[in-house]
Amino acid sequence: MHILIVEDDIDLGFALQKALKTNGLSSEWVRRVDHAPRSFESAPFDCILLDLCLPGGAGLDLLKLWRDDGIVIPIIVITARSALDDRLAGLDSGADDYLVKPFATAELISRIYAVQRRYVRQASDIWSVGDIEIEPRKYLARLNGTLLDLSPREFRLILELAREPGVVMPKGELSQRLEPLGDPVDFSAIEVHISNLRRKIGAHRIQTVHGVGYTLAS
Questions:
Q1: Mutual angle of helices 187-201 and 152-162, in 10-degree steps
Q2: What are the structural domains of the chain?
Q3: Domain Response regulatory: where (predicted)?
């Protein structure tokens, strides 16, 4: 997963990025409200960690702006404000979760996976798409109970397609999601990885919409 951190504290920002990387999650970090993206069409974030007290504006206003613009990316508020009114204001403004500082890294990681699980409408840490099971935290995938031998890129591909089974993911978006911190993956390389993945899970499970992208059969 790729995480956006909106946090002005330098020490905490570095600590968050280190903790996310240790847990296999990539991230980008901004310290001001006016440096945070307004649109996410070209930014494939899976979750946002948002502080409420920020230079350049209020985190709560940014949260409301995103939700008013139809941004549905899961958002976890991370803040020192622990009063009930503050927690209710954050949740009522569209936050998916609210975590009071200081917090344990393990709890933050669990909450990130929890909001992502709800976002993709999965009931547990094991995602089920037909006879395919995926465990994002363990980087494991099974077909009819048998462990699949997938390369890191193949696993990332099936994970991205499993976020919305039956919905076509455009090649452009897929290429960015596969390398959120680097250059987008070349379309020809994606085709090769898709071909290898089809060989391992069955060609009928990944459908091509020519000129658009791919979908995982639900």
A1: 80
A2: 2-119 (3.40.50.2300), 127-216 (1.10.10.10)
A3: 2-116
